[in-house]
Amino acid sequence: MSYLDNLNIWKNYENLDPTLKAELDSLNEKELEDAFYTDLEFGTGGLRGVLGVGTNRMNIYTVRRATLGFARYLINKKDARTKGVCISHDNRHMSKEFALSSAKVLANLGFKVYLFEDLRPTPELSFAVRYLKAIGGIMITASHNPKEYNGYKIYDEEGCQLLPSEANLVIKEIEAITDIFSVVEADSMDNITILGKELDEAYVNDIKTIVRNPNCKKDFKITYTPLHGTGQVFFPNVLKNLGYDVYPVLKQMTKDPDFSGVKTSNPENKEAYDESIEYAKEIGASLCLATDPDADRLGVAVLHNGEYVLLTGNQSATVLFNYIVNDKLNKKESLENNYLFTTVVSSSLPALIAKKHGIKVETTLTGFKYIGAKAKEIEGSGHYLFGFEESYGCLIKDSVRDKDSLQACIMLCEAAAYYYEQGKDLVDVLDDIYNEYGYTVEDISNIGLKGIEGKKKIELIMNHFRNNDISIDGYDILIKEDMKLGTILDMKTKTVTKNPLETSNVIKYHLSNNTWFVLRPSGTEPKLKVYYGVSGDSKESVYEALADLKDQVLAIINKLI
């Protein structure tokens, strides 16, 4: 249907939510077209978009339609209704309403529903699915996106987000629902079980088992912020119970959907730490921890030589993995059939550490659902040791099948305590790793391209790199991986082999000098992401090479837009 057809259906619906109707009446023609020209798409993080009226927005009707489609997909599985679905939500506008509406849609179809009493972290939702042996899960969240957004993640019975092959089946079911206003909710809570402290305790007790050295001295201070999100529920208390001296940033420990106490809700951005670092200076804290609103990702600032240094997601994951590996070696624990899981856009350092010690390495596409699927594959034949991706997410124990910032918090604090006893902070440890394995630095360019025109520009850029040869001064292009075409092209011999990774609109260039870059349209935001990795003999040389590589790649892109 055209956007006008969709628009007229909504205009003519007599029972349209009053708030959405008022918004509909206020939009200009261009805004109406963007709100109705397409249906909101599932990406790497599920359904995510701006809150508002229209088929291309997050609202009660698009959420109900998605839930009905998910239910129709689940019904084909054995005992789906009796196994039930777990549902949780974050602190955003409409999150609680979307969670309750989803619960009632499922209940109306005869599903048992486990609904968390209030906001809870995404990893706890994943744990709940596995712990309660449910058939699936729903998490209402837009992660670190701005306050105007919300989202809808769906999970399988393994507590893992759906892979594209399965998500596409859900999408087909959703697309078959042509009347978005026909979805019915139950008029009671009869089939809905409320989850609370009992499930929290099961999750926390399970996660605490990752502790490797409980008797480390913990005589240092830590600030913690949930950035108004779900980490506020119990993260500070868990760390305190483990003996850490934790100081929450109180003005950010509130369920504020407007995120009014933070400059950004994304721990990848340095502005997210401004208040934490200011507080840390007042009390003399050594670490500043920040979890994103749905608490699956952790960022950290480390006091080093009198300054607070922010670690990237790659760096903190490298430090954690190195700590775990060395601790196992010190305790003479076997690393045989242990696995490290990484992604095509993540740092190469953990893989180098793994290979040195005979740990098997599996590389997946971006998105923890791929790591979760790999974790399932090795059950019974291998041991899950560590998984991470560059976007500040890692997983240490796979009783959860998604990124888990509580696990990351616990292990990062433990690693810090262990190294402080040796007179080192985590930046010192990172430098030691660089000295042993070589200096490696990564970065990312986020190219925002909104709306219909933005989508066309992203497609134009990807097609240009996909269909044309490029050159990068100072480098030989060795290999070009195209995950959409499913090919690995050796640029010297021009031979093509099959790419073993799943199909995705991602292109990776492997250059000389252990350098690479990746182009990938975001699955959750209107932007093109370009990832870079550079290795060298010194910090100065790698940062210089990184700046040069970024300039050259962005110059090609800028000519196209």
Polypeptide structure, described:
The structure is a single chain. With 561 residues, this protein is α/β, with parallel strands linked by helices. It has four domains: 3-202, Alpha-D-Glucose-1,6-Bisphosphate, subunit A, domain 3 (Alpha-D-Glucose-1,6-Bisphosphate, Chain A, domain 3), CATH 3.40.120; 219-313, 3-Layer(aba) Sandwich (Alpha-D-Glucose-1,6-Bisphosphate, Chain A, domain 3); 325-435, Alpha-D-Glucose-1,6-Bisphosphate, Chain A, domain 3 (3-Layer(aba) Sandwich), CATH 3.40.120.10; 439-560, Alpha-D-phosphohexomutase, C-terminal domain (TATA-Binding Protein, 2-Layer Sandwich). Helix content is 38%, strand content 22%. The strands form four sheets. A seven-stranded mixed sheet has the order 1-2-6-5-3-4-7, sandwiched between helices. A seven-stranded antiparallel sheet has the order 17-23-22-21-18-19-20. α1 (3-11) packs across α3 (29-36) and α4 (60-74) packs across α8. The two termini are 29 Å apart.
